[in-house]
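G., the chain you wanted modeled:
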Amino acid sequence: MGRLISESRVVSAAPEEIFELLADPAQHPLIDGSGSVLAARGAPRRLALGMKFGMDMHMGADYRVLNTVVEFEEGRLIAWRHFNGHRWRWRLDPAEDGRTVVTEQFDWSTARIPLLISVSWFPRRNRRAISRTLDRLEARFAA
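Predicted structure as tokens:
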């Protein structure tokens, strides 16, 4: 099994419009399909490379996580890593008629201990969550 889960969807919005939502941590709970992202905490209004942002989370119990933006290309790519080094990545590729191919990825190849994630339930859970997140993103921008 690889250490990357990736799913793409065509969304009826321009890459720049979708990127504005992704670059604003306060908006993340609105599209989160996992049910674990509750609220941004002490986060800047708009992310940029190297910025840190906190999120209030819930997975069995409430907790907080600090993320760092580790990949950033304005309007096209943003990724942040968690404390264990795994990454959540969003790629936005222009499509016909002002639409965008949106790809969300959970990448644990960069994790400090990737084997722990590989043998856990996180890959299955995150695959379902990515699909639901893309459903919510698609619905948000539906005509």
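Strands lie at 4-11, 37-41, 52-58, 62-73, 77-81, 87-94, 100-107.

Shout if anything looks off.
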